[in-house]
Specification:
The chain is an all-alpha fold. The chain contains 14 helices and 2 strands. It has a two-stranded antiparallel sheet.
């Protein structure tokens, strides 16, 4: 039976360090092979969360599988298959509080349209975070649970900007109608991307920063900038990493071309984290 160590071994054979360790952390929360330099830089820049299992992995899986299957089969079948994928992923990586929370919210969101009810984010969050404590009360004292539910709550309450395909289409139509010059179009696109990334990052930190300061005694001042620089690379690295693992298990030589492309995004991420971690007053402690 395929194990987590088998999959991480594929990553280690295809990618060098610290890229292999970073990808294993992004995909499966495995931090044992991270170099001390990179781990320290992640802590200083407030980006250590990228190598911890979080709801992002579940969100990406839902996006990939549901959007693919819904084009081929009825919606209810797509939802059931995607829920099955979520269950397999949780079983494979382990039932950490952040993953369980994201899995429950993902399943509720997928099932809501099938029952004729709309999925309301705050209600879904309440059901997931409250239901988890009913079955496992000890999680109330788990820092992973606390950070996960607080970050999610912050994004639900304060992160209103999304850049999905429909948003881009509307934005492009408005710009095209007014016949702005090409340079202005790129300016507007870049502005919206920066706005979205900053809004997401800051909203996730509204409730988590006080907790992080109390628990770890340190707050990263450079976190918004670092997250802005690397945020766009995480979904791409995740998708490419999952593809690398899949093809590598089937036939290892086939994984190397995928690994070369993945390396480019991981290299940018590493350089951005290391560079910003050396900026004066990147973080402060008590």
């Amino acid at each position: 039976m395929l194990s987590l160590s088998d999959v991480t071994a594929v990553i280690s054979q295809v990618l060098p360090e610290p890229h292999a360790g970073l990808l294993a952390g992004i995909l499966f929360g495995v931090k044992t092979s991270l170099s001390s330099e990179l781990k320290n830089a992640l802590q200083i820049t407030g980006t250590l969360h990228i190598v911890a299992l979080s709801g992002m992995n579940i969100t990406i899986l839902v996006g990939i599988f549901f959007s693919t299957f819904v084009r081929l089969v009825p919606r209810w079948i797509s939802s059931i298959v995607t829920i099955g994928v979520i269950a397999i992923f949780v079983w494979f990586v382990g039932s950490s509080p952040s993953v369980v929370r994201a899995a429950i919210m993902g399943c509720i969101t997928l099932l809501a349209p099938l029952t004729g009810r709309a999925s309301i984010a705050l209600v879904t969050w309440s059901i997931a975070s409250g239901g988890m404590l009913l079955f496992h009360p000890a999680w109330i004292g788990d820092i992973s649970y606390q950070l996960s539910v607080l970050a999610t709550l912050g994004m639900i309450l304060f992160s209103k900007t999304t850049l999905d395909a429909k948003t881009w289409q509307v934005l492009y139509s408005e710009i095209a109608e007014k016949q702005f010059p090409r340079w202005y179009r790129w300016y507007v696109y870049l502005r919206e991307i920066i706005k979205t990334e900053l809004t997401t990052t800051l909203s996730a930190q509204v409730f988590t920063l006080p907790l992080l300061f109390v628990v770890f005694g340190r707050i990263s001042l450079i976190s918004p900038l670092t997250n802005l620089l690397i945020g766009w690379t995480i979904p791409i690295s995740t998708v490419l990493g999952l593809l690398l693992c899949f093809v590598g298990i089937l036939w290892l030589p086939l994984a190397y071309p995928v690994g070369w492309v993945t390396w480019v995004f991981l290299e940018f991420l590493i350089k951005a984290v290391l560079l910003t971690s050396h900026i004066p007053l990147a973080s402060i402690g008590r």
